Amino acid sequence: MTATAQTIVRSGTKASVKGPEAWFTGNVRIDNAFQLEAPGRATGAVVTFEPSARSHWHAHPAGQVLVVLTGVGWTQCEGGPRTEIRAGDVITCACDKRHWHGAAATTAMSHFAVTETIDGKNTDWMEAVTDEQYLAGELVTD
């Protein structure tokens, strides 16, 4: 049997899912776009955060790339500043660095997330980002 050169997943053929409370605070929707079969390791999803919604602290064994599609959000690596992200921004998260990302307090945000899987895992989920952590410190906008 010959492998297919291309696979097309038609828009609207996969159901949206609610972001689990074990991974997110607030209203979050996940639209899984793809998961490559071996030897490929990448997965991709559009994640939409309502205002103030955010991921829990987490890390990725092979890192992550986020492309902000709409809105305004915030992201923070542990020990670093809370930073504003906007539509068109591309964020790379280094391997195994604790971080979170989500919508700004009053504005929704959607991003396309690409991660790779190592030994069956693409994310290590941790504790929730508290309201105090979410709002703490100066917001970097540049």
Low-confidence stretches: none
Percentage of β-strand residues: over 45%
Number of helices: 1
CATH fold group:
Jelly Rolls
Helix fraction?
A: under 10%
Polypeptide structure, described:
By secondary structure, the chain is mainly beta. The chain has one domain: Sandwich (Jelly Rolls), CATH 2.60.120. It contains one helix and 13 strands; from the N terminus they run E-E-E-E-E-E-E-E-E-E-E-E-H-E. The strands form three sheets. Strands 1, 3, 4, 7, 8, 9, 10, 11 and 13 form a nine-stranded mixed sheet that branches. Strands 2-5 form a two-stranded antiparallel ribbon. It starts with 16 loop residues before the first strand and ends with a strand. The mean pLDDT is 94.
Key features?
142 residues; mainly beta; two-stranded antiparallel ribbon; 13 strands
Summarize the entry for a quick read:
By secondary structure, this protein is mainly beta. It contains one helix and 13 strands. The mean pLDDT is 94.
SSE arrangement:
Blueprint: E1 17-18, E2 24-25, E3 28-35, E4 42-49, E5 54-55, E6 58-59, E7 64-77, E8 82-86, E9 90-93, E10 99-103, E11 109-116, E12 124-125, H1 131-135, E13 139-140
